[in-house]
Amino acid sequence: DVQLQASGGGLVQSGGSLTLSCAAPGLAYGDYAIGWFRQAPGKKREGVSSIAASGDMPYYVDSVKGRFTISSDRAKNTVLLQMNSLKPEDTAVYYCAAARLIAAGLLKFVPGLDDEKWHYWGQGTLVTVSS
Known about the structure:
The protein is mainly β and about 130 residues long.
């Protein structure tokens, strides 16, 4: 069973930075991807970024591209989401999730950031960006 632990949320001023961490002990890093999602008050949960747990194929949605960086630290079994230039609209509960990579012949791909494609979820961590 895949267990995920998200941490690192907090209160930060607009323009500030935070780094979220998703611990995934025991994850088969060659077979899984990690995604970050967020849910703002009154809004639907949305995908933010994803990466193969091995560190390949980072992906960002347009609203965070150039400001957020996702990375995998295999030695620590952790995926990080470095968030810079934070804006009030980034305020949300952030979740990390895991999904098996999609195999296509000899290649493997990270699933798209649709909720139903991600089967394992950590608890959320709250990020609040004040203006």
